[in-house]
Amino acid sequence: MTSNVLSPLVAAGGVLNSAYYGSKAVLLEDAVDVGGLPSVDDVFEWIDGSLLRRPYFSVLHDGVRPPDSEVLASRTIDGTTIKGFVDPAGVRRQLDSGATIKLNQIEDWHPLIRAMNDEMNAIFPAESKAYLFYTPAGKRGMRPHRDGSRVVAIQLAGVKEWHLYAEPEQAGARAGLDVDTSQEQVVLRGPGDVLYLPHGYAHAATAVDGPSLHITFTLAEPAPDMLVRAYVAQWVDSGGPERALAGQDPHSSLASVKALLGDLGDSGRTDAETLLQHALQAARTRDAS
C-alpha cells in the first residue's frame, strides 16, 4: 500500500487507529508533513481554471448556499451547453464577502489524497471521503453541527479555531444542527496539526488571523438501510427469488410473498462480516453525482 503522511497514525497501533474505537476527541500537534497536499494557491488555480463542476464544489455562508446564479456558469463544449461549472468571478466575490468554498470528494482527482483515502478505506470499516475547506479570516463555513461520521481534520494553511461541544447527550447523536453550545472547548489548529472527532461529535470551526485551509476525511459506517439493501442484493445474487418461487402456484400472490419472505429471512445465507463488506463496497463505489 502506498505510504502517506497519515500512515503512521492510522496503521495498527497508531493513535488514530486506537481513537477510532473510542469516544474522545484527539488533538495532535505538528503531526503530519503537509508537503504535497493542496495549498491556498492550488485552490485558486482550480477556481480560476473553470474545470470544477457540481457536485465537486460548494460555496457556504455559515451553512447557507448562495443562489446558483451567483456561483455557477455554463460552458459550450462541441456545440453542447453544459451547466454546473464554477463561475470564477462569482465565487471570488462570494469569498471576498466571507464565504467558504468546499471542494467535495477531492480523492477522486488528487493522487496523494486518493492514496490517503484508500488507506483509510482499507483499514477502517467505513466509507472514507475527503473534503477541502478554504475559509476567509474571521469566518466559518458552517454553523455548529454534528456529522453523521467520524472526522479526521488536517490543517494545511492558516489557523482554525475549533469549538467542540461534547455534552453526553450530543456525542454519538445523528447528524444535525440542534447543538447545545452552552458548554464548549476551544482549540487552535495550525499547519500540520490533526484533529480527530468521534461519530456525531458536535463542533464548529472559524478561521483566525487570516484565511484557513484544511482537509477533512469523513469515516461513515453503513447505515441500517444500507445494510438492508446489501442483504437484499446478496439474496438476489444468490438466486433467492428463483429458488423461493420454484414450484409455487403462479396464481397465488400471497403464497409467493410468503415464499419470498421465508427465503429472504434465512439468515444462514450470509454472515455479519460478509454483509458489512458488501455494504461498504456498495458505498465506496457510488457515483459522486
Total count of strands: 10
CATH class of the largest domain: Mainly Beta
Q: How would you classify the helix and strand content by structural class?
A: alpha+beta
Radius of gyration (CA) equals: 22 Å
- Poorly predicted regions are none
* Count of the domains: 2
Keywords: Iron, Metal-binding
Cofactor: Fe(2+)
Protein name: JmjC domain-containing protein
Organism: Kineosporia mesophila
Describe the protein:
A hairpin with a 2-residue loop joins strand 3 (72-77) and strand 4 (80-86). The two termini are 28 Å apart. With 289 residues, this protein is of the alpha+beta class. It has helices at residues 7-10, 15-20, 40-48, 88-96, 111-123, 224-237, 240-245, 253-264, 272-284, and strands spanning 26-28, 57-60, 72-77, 80-86, 100-104, 127-135, 150-165, 185-189, 194-197, 202-220. Strands 1, 2, 5, 6, 7, 8, 9 and 10 form an 8-stranded antiparallel beta sheet that branches. Strands 3-4 form a two-stranded antiparallel sheet. It folds into 2 domains: 7-220, Jelly Rolls; 224-284, no CATH class. Keywords: Iron, Metal-binding. Residues 99-236 form the JmjC domain. This is JmjC domain-containing protein.
